[in-house]
């Protein structure tokens, strides 16, 4: 039996349908249209905007829990917290820790990737620049020698071998480290997204990584050599190349003018990420990010160094809040913002099943009110309890 939904606005990759309608069959979208629907609606969502379920490629935690503790229970808390805020596909991002602890977390999270609960694992480290390590534990950073890269990629699926993709879908690394370019090539060969981040690379070093197959910039501007007009660094290389860039739209990590500038330069290559840690969807307090102690005050997460001025350590964003900030305070067009929270990240990870309100895709929907607050969330054809 099919279900027909109508709403004042339905956002597709190409345009906003106003009014719009959707026909769902089980967990699939079968038809999308504008104007008068072909029959009476089963559910009229009225003065709302229907967008695809959000796709977040950079999430460490939420609801008080973190992926890097490596337990299925913690992962379920994180996933449920973000799901209630509209994220229907998400990465499990792991911060730098000892090899054994990271490998153990990959093994555990791979089970949730296999059953479709998580879109994949994102290793943020340990191959990061000590000069741009941010909230990553300096003592566990290392150069990306090929055997250690292979060992973490294969921690969960030792049989996948070259050319096949396992649970790890993305690796953030600093390409200027010894072995960096070889690691980028290895990742590209394995179908894993090589992301440039936590890096002190010069423009030329970043360009070499892009030539070697790097395809994405991790939280552009944050934890990387800054853009200078005579020394454009990784930011200049990433913005000037046909690759995707993550942006943290919380009003803390980036000035709204910077968001607008990057969206103007490459609207179809911008990816909104939360980089959320455990305090997302949870109160201020003291938390952990991997091995590091974090203090969250007024929604801003910092390394706990006693001064209250430590490095920013992830965000407390939900994707819904990022969308509200980007389309509200930063004033970006709704269509561009929704694409950056759905279609572009899905494409970047090869998630062909999600990320757009199109026939054939999974019925993942977020219903937003006129302030872009989340009213309802649907994943795989079922409304999520909120
Ligand atoms: Zn980071």
Short description:
By secondary structure, the chain is an alpha/beta fold.
CATH architecture label name of the largest domain? Alpha-Beta Barrel
Query: Which strand order does the major sheet show?
Result: 8-11-12-13-14-15-16-17
Q: Which residues form runs of ≥5 with pLDDT under 50?
A: none
CATH superfamily of the largest domain: Metal-dependent hydrolases
Morphology call: globular
Q: Which topology of the largest domain does CATH recognise?
A: TIM Barrel
Number of domains: 2
Q: What ligands are attached or bound here?
A: zinc ion
The first-to-last residue Cα distance is 25 Å
Assign the CATH class of the largest domain: Alpha Beta
Helix/strand class = alpha/beta
Total DSSP helices? 10
Number of strands: 23
Question: Roughly what percent helix?
Answer: 25-40%
Could you describe the largest sheet, including whether it forms a barrel? 8 strands, parallel
Beta-strand share of residues: 25-35%
Oligomer: single chain
Mean pLDDT: 95
> How big is the Rg?
20 Å
Describe the protein.
- The longest helix has 16 residues, at 99-114.
- Helix 6 links the parallel strand 15 and strand 16 (244-248).
- The chain has ten helices and 23 strands.
- Helix 8 runs antiparallel to helix 9 (334-341).
- The strands form five sheets. It has an eight-stranded parallel sheet. Strands 3-2-7-21-22-23 form a six-stranded mixed sheet, with no helix packed on it. A four-stranded mixed sheet has the order 5-4-1-6, with no helix packed on it.
- It starts with a strand and ends with a strand.
- It has 386 residues and is α/β, with parallel strands linked by helices.
- Bound molecules: zinc ion.
- The site of zinc ion has 5 residues, from loops.
């Amino acid at each position: 039996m099919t279900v027909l939904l109508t709403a004042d606005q339905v956002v597709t990759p190409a345009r906003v349908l106003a009014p719009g309608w959707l026909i769902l069959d089980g967990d699939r979208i079968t038809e999308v249209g504008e104007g008068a629907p072909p029959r009476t609606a089963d559910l009229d969502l009225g003065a709302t905007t229907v967008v695809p379920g959000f796709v977040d490629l950079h999430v460490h935690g939420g609801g008080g829990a973190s992926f890097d503790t490596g337990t299925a229970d913690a992962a379920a808390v994180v996933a449920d917290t973000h799901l209630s805020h509209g994220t229907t596909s998400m990465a499990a991002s792991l911060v730098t820790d000892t090899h054994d602890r990271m490998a153990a977390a990959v093994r555990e999270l791979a089970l949730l990737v296999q059953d479709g609960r998580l879109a994949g694992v994102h290793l943020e480290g340990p191959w990061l620049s000590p000069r741009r390590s941010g909230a990553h534990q300096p003592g566990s950073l290392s150069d990306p020698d090929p055997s250690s890269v292979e060992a973490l990629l294969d921690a969960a699926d030792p049989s996948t071998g070259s050319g096949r993709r396992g649970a790890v879908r993305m690796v953030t690394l600093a390409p200027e480290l010894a072995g960096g370019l070889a690691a980028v090539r290895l990742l590209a060969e394995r179908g894993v997204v090589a992301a440039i981040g936590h890096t002190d690379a010069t423009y030329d070093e970043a360009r070499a990584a892009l030539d070697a197959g790097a395809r994405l910039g991790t939280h552009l501007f944050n934890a990387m050599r800054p853009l200078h007009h005579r020394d454009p660094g990784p930011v200049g290389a990433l913005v000037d190349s046909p690759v995707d860039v993550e942006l943290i739209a919380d009003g803390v990590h980036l000035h709204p003018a910077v968001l607008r500038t990057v969206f103007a330069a490459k609207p179809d290559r911008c990816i909104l990420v939360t980089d959320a840690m455990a305090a997302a969807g949870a109160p201020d307090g003291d938390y952990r990010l991997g091995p590091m102690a974090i203090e969250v005050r007024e929604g801003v997460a910092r390394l706990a160094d006693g001064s209250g001025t430590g490095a920013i350590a992830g965000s407390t964003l939900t994707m819904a809040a990022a969308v509200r900030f980007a389309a509200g305070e930063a004033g970006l067009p709704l269509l561009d913002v929704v694409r950056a929270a759905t279609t572009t990240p899905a494409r970047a990870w090869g998630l062909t099943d999600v990320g757009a309100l199109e026939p054939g895709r999974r019925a993942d929907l977020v219903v937003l009110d006129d302030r872009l607050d989340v009213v309802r969330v649907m994943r795989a054809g079922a409304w999520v309890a909120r």
